[in-house]
Design brief:
The chain is of the alpha+beta class and 116 residues long. It is 49% helix and 16% strand. The protein has helices at 2-11, 43-63, 74-94, 111-115, and strands at 16-23, 30-36, 105-108.
């Protein structure tokens, strides 16, 4: 289950997380563009990707029979990784990426909620 969740978290980085709206000069209306997490890649998205990769590596290492000690055990470490990823995603809800353009705004899309 942890492997499926980590893989799904990595895949959600390709989904639309944000919607950029820009005022188009000379026309009435807005130009809108969906942005994925990889399209606005910062340290937050890198950390989320690293969490998913770390969990997958842990599971792979255990599957190979490699023995190493983790404080609290594997389940505790995977739970901490999930909590850290969730904290990063909540942070990203409020700290939206900067975009350029006249009157540009950024809104939240459905992909970030799938990541959560």
């Amino acid at each position: 289950m942890a492997g499926i969740a980590a893989t799904a978290l990595a895949v959600t980085l390709f989904l639309p997380w944000y919607q950029k709206s820009v005022v188009v000069r000379g026309q009435e209306g807005l130009a809108q563009q969906n942005l994925s997490a990889l399209g606005v890649f910062t340290f937050v998205e890198a950390a989320v990707l690293l969490v998913a990769a770390g969990v997958l590596f842990l599971l792979w290492a255990r599957m190979q029979g490699k023995a190493f000690h983790l404080p609290g055990g594997d389940g505790f470490v995977i739970s901490l990784a999930g909590g850290w990823a969730m904290a990063l995603l909540v942070w990203r809800l409020f700290d939206k990426p900067d975009v350029s353009g006249a009157g540009a705004t950024v809104g939240i899309q459905w992909g970030i909620f799938f990541a959560m």
